[in-house]
Amino acid sequence: MIRKLATATAIAVGLAAGATAATATEEVNFGIISTEATANLKKSWEPFLAEMEKGTGLKIKAFYASDYAGIIEAQRFNKVQVAWYGNKSAMEAVDRAEAEVFVQSVAANGSPGYWSHLIVHKDSPIQSLDDVLKCDKSLDFGNGDPNSTSGFLVPMSYVFAAKNIDPKACFKTVRAANHEANALAVANKQVQVATNNSENLERLKKTHPDAATSIRVVWTSPLIPSDPLAWRKDLDAGIKAKIYSFLMSYGRVGTEEELKAQRAILAELGWAPFRPSSNDQLLPIRQLEASRKLLKIEGDDKIAADDKKKQVEAIKAEIDKLAEAAKAAADSDMAKKVLAFLDADKASKADDLKKMIGEFAQGFATK
Predict the structure, then answer these.
(1) What angle do CA 87, 88, 94 make, to 5 degrees?
(2) pTM of full prediction above 0.85
């Protein structure tokens, strides 16, 4: 398994031969956002990171934090070089932490993304979104981490900002927690309604099966793009090539037995083999965040009319600019290369895939 991956890595490194040499220690800290308890995350991630260490020849160290901001800040100060993020936290890392999206996860079931949910206890009288939004301050609400896409941005945009509702004015109490903590709080009737997502509810069936059977979904969002991985832009070019080649080859390059073992490790993370990506993946999230801001400002009666007009015009200009960027991204060379890669992957064209992985790696390494 490792020999096959090492061969693919060698191809990528060779293509990046003109780039900067690898650092002396070749140590990489890999940041993992706190979607659930660290003990549970370690069980899922450590086998994969051990494979990554063997396949790249790098020293890979897991980095955990108590919240999403801890990973973003660690990457900002170069305490973390590569990280797994949700889309919103990746957006923050790109804007604040010199990060760059380079691959995207793919759900093990082949889904192109996942969904945000509002959840209640199975015995709750709450049956619909209207019941959640009665806003008589009788319900305790479990919100998500402020840097979470599905736990915060999506429900805040589609549920609350769209209806000009401030959760603090709607609920008896509002507390922020990770997905797992929110699910358990609902299952144990500590809060009546909370944010969550389809991936975490699926994981809950393994980590807390009794709690999983006690939860019912009352709202589902539009599809959210699958999670990205992002590295620091200034990460050594040779290290980038090794990491990229390993990730894109993992679950694709090897014998049937090797691929089965690799895909089983990925499945523990809820994933299939990765697909190429870039910062363009975040454009829909940027559009959503801008729209949320617009709705919030338009519904704020405390802002003076002239000031509100200026802010609204600025955000609308930003939304138009993002729409143009999204259109350009859809027609870009990168988008065409990704489609070609996915076609080759679907057709199991191993030689074409190896060549394209090397070309992608070279493109990132020489930026």
Answers:
(1) 85
(2) yes
